[in-house]
């Protein structure tokens, strides 16, 4: 039995495009980047949540103050795309004492914990990081 192959198929390329493993590895990050929100929105949501929890006015003002400074640098950037290297660089660029710098780090860690809980990021890049110290 002879089979007839149409001429359009006989000249078709034999290779086909496949996804690379690296694109599969990036899928979770892309998923969270699509669902992520900006730092500005995250700060607003976190402060509103703390107000609903009846947190102390001083604590809310302190959190808002630290995160507003963080927002000046990262405000329009999606939370899921911010790396620990970017955060470390920003913290080290502040002209403040080590104690104050660590207060900023704690506020940022709290904000990213909130982001993970609400599906804006897949992990907290600040969680478990050492205290920021003076540069050598």
In short:
The chain is an all-alpha fold and 136 residues long. The protein has 7 helices and no strands.
Key phrases:
136 residues; mainly alpha; DNA polymerase, domain 1; 7 helices; 59% helix; 0% strand
What does this structure look like?
- This protein has a domain at 26-117: Orthogonal Bundle (DNA polymerase, domain 1), CATH 1.10.150.
- The chain is 59% helix and 0% strand.
- It is mainly alpha-helical and 136 residues long.
- The protein is globular, with a radius of gyration of 23 Å.
- It has helices spanning 7-10, 21-25, 27-35, 39-52, 57-74, 84-93, 98-117.
- It has seven helices and no strands.
- Helix 4 (39-52) packs antiparallel against helix 5 (57-74) and helix 5 crosses helix 7.
- The longest helix has 20 residues, at 98-117.
Ranges where pLDDT stays below 50 over 5 or more residues in a row are 3-30
CATH architecture label name of the domain at 26-117: Orthogonal Bundle
How many DSSP E strands? 0
Order of helices and strands: HHHHHHH
N-to-C terminal Cα separation, in Å? 81 Å
Rg, alpha carbons: 23 Å
CATH class of the domain at 26-117: Mainly Alpha
CATH topology of the domain at 26-117: DNA polymerase, domain 1
Helix vs. strand class: mainly alpha
Number of helices: 7
Helix percent reads 55-70%
Let me know the CATH homologous superfamily of the domain at 26-117: Tyrosine recombinase, N-terminal domain
What percent strand?
Answer: under 5%
Largest sheet: none
Rounded mean pLDDT score: 78
The global form is: globular
